[in-house]
């Protein structure tokens, strides 16, 4: 059992409140996943630059690391965000591997920042100051581990492509076969978690030219098991439940936002919820919103 939350804002007026809204939703889903938590926020970006979200051991001196790399690192606990010109990304990654081999790149993109850790969701959100973050959309996850160890690597979201991330409640039965397919296509799945396989599958489809919506449609035929996915891209937000739809899900839509949660109580505190269109997403139906549309 895990908890999923997500927000896609339609109106800029709410963008400064995105982190505070998601933080409250994540906290309410604590009892569905007390082992670990994480979230991805799509905030402001700089044209021609890419953000690298870094994760290091406790006590990592990100300020000193930024000095060594020649680019400042904004530290948030065990994570830091480094913004570099696109043309310098490869050289910065090489320097990072040489200077700080224990520091990993856990997310990359023009706008996405990704944070996750072991611990109670409220504590994780507070540790990274989620309530202070702004942006256009975000997704979050609270995990109760059932098939793999409780580790930061096993926490959600999973990101396998630029500005792409996925959170998942459920279990895939054919993840081993899909993992082998992805390996042949050059996509490395770094953990034993089946959710990372799902994320990499969507990256594989989008690399081939699919939109997020099209990739989710294809997953209905290629991924077996029971699942609810919430997925983010640079401009998009998607939701999909498997054909059985045994995992709980509820959505709310107003003129200002689209919201997702595993249970309605995580939506109850959102502004305007009393007049929102509240509905249960249908089985095997792709729901997709895109700011670029």
UniProtKB/TrEMBL annotation:
| Transferase found in the keyword field | yes
Transferase as UniProt keyword: yes
User: Keywords in UniProt for this one?
Assistant: Glutamine amidotransferase, Transferase
PANTHER family the record matches: AMIDOPHOSPHORIBOSYLTRANSFERASE (PTHR11907)
Q: Please state every residue range assigned to the domain named Glutamine amidotransferase type-2.
A: 2-292
The record ties this protein, via Pfam families, to:
GATase_6
Question: Which InterPro entries does this one have?
Answer: GATase_2_dom, Ntn_hydrolases_N
Q: Which GO terms describe its molecular function?
A: transferase activity
Q: Record's SUPFAM superfamilies?
A: N-terminal nucleophile aminohydrolases (Ntn hydrolases)
Q: What is this protein called?
A: N-methylglutamate synthase subunit A
């Amino acid at each position: 059992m895990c908890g999923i939350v997500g927000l896609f804002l339609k109106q800029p007026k709410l963008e400064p409140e995105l982190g505070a809204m998601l933080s409250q939703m994540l906290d309410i889903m604590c009892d569905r996943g007390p082992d670990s938590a994480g979230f991805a926020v799509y905030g402001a970006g700089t044209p021609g630059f890419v953000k690298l979200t870094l994760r290091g051991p406790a006590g990592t001196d990100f300020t000193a690391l930024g000095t060594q790399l020649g680019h400042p690192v904004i530290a948030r606990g065990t994570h830091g965000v480094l913004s570099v010109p696109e043309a310098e990304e490869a050289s910065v990654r090489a320097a990072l591997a040489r200077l700080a081999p224990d520091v990993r790149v856990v997310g990359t993109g023009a706008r996405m920042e990704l944070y996750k850790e072991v611990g109670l969701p409220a504590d994780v959100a507070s540790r990274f100051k989620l309530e202070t973050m702004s942006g256009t959309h975000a997704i979050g996850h609270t995990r109760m581990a059932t098939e793999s160890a409780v580790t930061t690597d096993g926490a959600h979201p999973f990101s396998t492509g630029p500005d792409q991330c996925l959170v998942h409640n459920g279990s895939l039965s054919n993840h081993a076969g899909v993992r082998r397919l992805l390996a042949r296509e050059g996509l490395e799945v770094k953990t034993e978690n089946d959710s990372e396989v799902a994320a990499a599958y969507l990256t594989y489809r989008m690399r081939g030219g699919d939109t997020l919506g099209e990739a989710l449609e294809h997953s209905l035929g290629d991924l077996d098991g029971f699942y609810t996915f919430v997925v983010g891209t640079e401009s998009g937000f998607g939701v999909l439940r498997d054909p059985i739809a045994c995992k709980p899900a509820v959505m709310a839509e107003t003129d200002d936002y689209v919201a997702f949660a595993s249970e309605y109580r995580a939506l109850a505190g959102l502004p305007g919820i009393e007049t929102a269109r509240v509905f249960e997403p249908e089985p095997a139906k792709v729901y997709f919103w895109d700011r670029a549309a």
